[in-house]
Amino acid sequence: MFGNFLIGLREGLEASLVVCILVAYLVKTGNRRQLPPLWAGVGIAVTLSLAFGALLQFGSSTLTFQAKEALGGTLSILSVGLVTWMVFWMRRTARHLKSELQDKLDAALAVGTGALVVTSFFAVGREGLETSLFIWTAAQATGDGIRPLIGALLGLATSVVLGWLFYKGALRINLARFFRWTGAMLVVVAAGVLAYGIHDLQEADLLPGLHHLAFDISTTIPPDSWYGTLLKGVFNFQPDPTVLQVIVWALYLTPVMGFFLAPERPRPAPNTRTAAGAPAK
């Protein structure tokens, strides 16, 4: 449940900040009349994300066991790739996100109402689709009934409240530090989802080694115990993983976490000075 709460909180807060920036810029530039098209684009993006999540849930329920495992494993790997790209993208562009969005909004205002709807739709829709996919795969990994969904909804609700507080100026936190540490926790969650996806593909007979276990501590940490449920809900922990699951988990987590936590190299400032004696261009 906590893992899905974290996913909903981080992804929802990204979308909330995007909406806050767009709304604040329209109000500040005297374009308040353009708020309805902006909210229309946001509403379409949210509706599409919910429809995508419902399609994943109800569409997969009609498949055979092997097909469902193959689909779940494939989507788990895809969602891990998307989330990994997302956390690195936010780490790289968080400082310039506001100016980039304002530039896109200026271009949309120059074109017309339809362009404004499309701009707000794409600004929010990407986070929405990523959130739906990753929440679905993470919920499948925990197999904990409706509680993963409740956790995700609580995270999304919290992100909406935080976004509103940011817009009103009632809340100020170090967003760079927030996204850094939540991103690191998401990498851990993604590693568990990736291992679960590998297990799904093994059960679908698309990968070998289903019965070659790396270890089995089910008697020490029973999956149905409160601490076993907690570990599975937070880290997608499995007490009896296969050898391939452990290898893939380590090969993903170690380098990705290392690169993510490594300090960013400062970008050199452009040299605008003309060399001595060189003719000015």
From TrEMBL:
<keyword id="KW-0472">Membrane</keyword>
<dbReference type="InterPro" id="IPR004923">
    <property type="entry name" value="FTR1/Fip1/EfeU"/>
</dbReference>
<keyword id="KW-0812">Transmembrane</keyword>
<dbReference type="GO" id="GO:0015093">
    <property type="term" value="F:ferrous iron transmembrane transporter activity"/>
</dbReference>
<feature type="transmembrane region" description="Helical">
    <location>
        <begin position="242"/>
        <end position="262"/>
    </location>
</feature>
<keyword id="KW-1133">Transmembrane helix</keyword>
<feature type="transmembrane region" description="Helical">
    <location>
        <begin position="108"/>
        <end position="125"/>
    </location>
</feature>
<feature type="transmembrane region" description="Helical">
    <location>
        <begin position="38"/>
        <end position="58"/>
    </location>
</feature>
<protein>
    <submittedName>
        <fullName>Iron transporter</fullName>
    </submittedName>
</protein>
<feature type="transmembrane region" description="Helical">
    <location>
        <begin position="6"/>
        <end position="26"/>
    </location>
</feature>
<feature type="transmembrane region" description="Helical">
    <location>
        <begin position="178"/>
        <end position="198"/>
    </location>
</feature>
<dbReference type="Pfam" id="PF03239">
    <property type="entry name" value="FTR1"/>
</dbReference>
<feature type="transmembrane region" description="Helical">
    <location>
        <begin position="70"/>
        <end position="88"/>
    </location>
</feature>
<dbReference type="GO" id="GO:0033573">
    <property type="term" value="C:high-affinity iron permease complex"/>
</dbReference>
<feature type="transmembrane region" description="Helical">
    <location>
        <begin position="145"/>
        <end position="166"/>
    </location>
</feature>
<comment type="similarity">
    <text>Belongs to the oxidase-dependent Fe transporter (OFeT) (TC 9.A.10.1) family.</text>
</comment>
